[in-house]
Amino acid sequence: MAVDQIYLENLDEFVNDENKVVTYKWLSRTLSVHVNQAKQMLYTFVQQQRNKKDNDKLSVCYFLSGMAETPDGGKILKAMVVPEESLDTMKSTLTTVTSCHVYSVQKVKLKDSNALYIADYDKLKGSLLQSKEFSAIRSDECKPRSLEELEKLEAASHPVITEPPAKVTTMNGTSGSKPKPKQPTGIAGMFSNASKKKEDKEENEKEEGKGDQEQKETVADKGKGKQGGIGSFFSKQQNKEPSTKSETTKVEPSVKKDSADAVKPQRDLNKKSPPKRGQKSKKTRKQDSDEEDAAPQKQKRRRIQVVESSSEEEEEDEVIPESPVPSPVADIPSSPEPEKMEEEEEEEKVEKVKKTGNSHAQSSNQHESSEKHRVKRRKKVTNTYMDKQGFMVTEEVWETASTDASDIDEPTKPAPVTAPKSKQDSSDKSGNKDKKVQPTKKKTSPDPKHSGKQTSLMSFFKKK
Amino acid sequence: MSHQDFSVSEVSADILCEFLEVAFHCILYVRQIYPPGVFERRKKYNIPVQVSRHPEVSSYIQEVVKSLRPLLQSNELEKVVLVILDGFERPVERFVFEITTPQQPNISDDSFLLRIEQALRSFILKLNICEALLSDKPKDCTWTVQVHTKESAVDTLQSQPLIESFPWVQAEDLQTSMADSRLVPLKAIQTGLVQMQLYAEEIEDKT
């Protein structure tokens, strides 16, 4: 009791002298007491002030929750913060009152809930990651993550996930704010567990519901012992002391906050969503790669990335022709598989096709695409030589470790080479040797990569 | 270095302008100058604030704050006062923002401006609950904004084209002086960027 006296004096100071808005949450954190004790203190304080000290200037807000009927005949659980004047009217709107306790005490008559939110804001934000020993919400399943889990989430958080828009709509759509996509950490974790249970239990609750709740004390309880409300769900599930608390009020401000700035935090949280989402296979593969990449590079990366299944390879073949200037500057230190090189070389080839309109390259491209499936280790070597007519010819030939591909390759290649050659000769006789040289030059300019003369990162991979 | 200072002072001027706009709306709401239905809830500094929806009110406040900006930047602004006048054009209440910018504003220790945000949040909270400290005011009040500054600043200000579309006039004595006023300190902050003090003055007898 002596301890209480000191607390009450503190309260007196806070409310009367400093003109603060004292909510039970704030009080519990400031004085390091359990929330139920804080509620009790507020109540006693109000009684004392009004009865003994004739201080009528106090304005009190109550937290009220209970069952109500919807117009369709269904039942809903309502939780609200009401000013004292409306307390009785609001109570009458509820069929059963499951919880009613003091929410805040202040000297000023509040116009709206803004001040209540602001009053708690800094304190709550500051203590987000602290222990919840003062809270009445409990869950056995809510445990801090192990280091391994954290690391896994770190890795999974790197790829940018395009899910947020979908998640935002679900977030805003459900009043119960199903934070399933959220990663449970701290308070958010409690909510996700809590709300999951709430969803599960709401059906059960409706069946068992009324009888159970009537057992609990309703109006004007002193904040001790049984205050049902949301806590009753948990008590059923875990056979624990019914934990009270405005889990909902906590959810409310956080829902407001969430829906208000839904997109950004959603994004941040969704980034950490577990790698269960196998659908996003391409993006999860990016885990190993680039934080350092420039954004446009990233875009290209997704298409060009190493692909494990053949189906996706074909997809990428279609994609590759559309991509802009190839990114030979591969600053990703991921394991340079020859397949990758091939893909990028193919890309260049396609580029050449566009630029030069040379069917020769195209045909060789097709050959390569078919060969990709069969042979893993292949080297593409370009031979540049002067042919009979005096035109520079660049020939790309596959040299491989295994014999199959190379044997098939070489006989086919000279044939298409010669055929288009004749076409070209006839068309370009107007003497634009420069033109002819230029296209080939264009071909050759990216080629030096293969010979390793120009410094580019492709050569780096090649030599590996 | 001077370039660095220049941009910091711009930043601080911007921050203060935003804050003044929000604060004016807040005062209008809390003191019930306009019916509460005119206000809608918006978010600033991560807290809900009431902002007037009426286009003329909000544009007026915006213009006022915009024209204050050059003064803020050059640190010539002494006080900004939101005065509430009664039906006889006598000031009944005054909310005074005293603003001083240090010579070398720096945000080195608050690079995310978190502390400034926190300080401004506490200002708004105090405005929300200032009613407890002030007595009720009569109905049919109007309001105006007064600025205390140096005379040289007034001259430069008036020559700017921006101001010509929204001119400031010298305040009448009737509107500036308050007889028998009581001073109620509300909040004071001191940050690297700005030092601001908010207090309210009200006359004893408001009828």
TrEMBL record, chain A:
- What are the BP-aspect GO terms? DNA strand elongation involved in DNA replication; DNA synthesis involved in UV-damage excision repair; nucleotide-excision repair, DNA gap filling
Output compositional bias ranges, type Polar residues.
356-367
Q: Where in the cell is it found?
A: Nucleus
Positions with biased composition (Basic and acidic residues)? 196-224, 238-271, 422-437
State a GO cellular component annotated for this protein. delta DNA polymerase complex
Tree of life domain:
Eukaryota
Q: Which UniProt keywords apply?
A: DNA replication, Nucleus
Residue segments, region Disordered: 153-464
Q: Does the keyword Acetylation apply?
A: no
Single GO molecular-function term? DNA-directed DNA polymerase activity
Acidic residues bias (residue ranges): 310-320
Basic residues compositional bias, start-end: 273-285
What is the recorded name of this protein?
A: DNA polymerase delta subunit 3
From TrEMBL, chain B:
* InterPro entries membership: HORMA_dom (IPR003511), HORMA_dom_sf (IPR036570), Mad2-like (IPR045091)
Q: What GO biological process term is on the record, naming one?
A: DNA damage response
Q: Where in the cell is it found?
A: Nucleus
**SUPFAM superfamilies (alphabetical):** The spindle assembly checkpoint protein mad2
Q: Which GO terms describe its cellular component?
A: nucleus; zeta DNA polymerase complex
The UniProt keywords, alphabetically, are: DNA damage, Nucleus
Stretches assigned to coiled coil? none
Residues forming the HORMA domain are 10-200
Claim: Nucleus is one of the keywords in the record = yes
Any one Pfam family here would be HORMA
Output the PANTHER family linked to this UniProt entry.
Answer: MITOTIC SPINDLE ASSEMBLY CHECKPOINT PROTEIN MAD2, MITOTIC SPINDLE ASSEMBLY CHECKPOINT PROTEIN MAD2B
Descriptive protein name: Mitotic spindle assembly checkpoint protein MAD2B
Say which species the protein is native to: Lingula anatina (Brachiopod)
Lineage at the top is: Eukaryota, Metazoa, Spiralia, Lophotrochozoa, Brachiopoda
What gene name is listed for this protein? Answer: LOC106156441
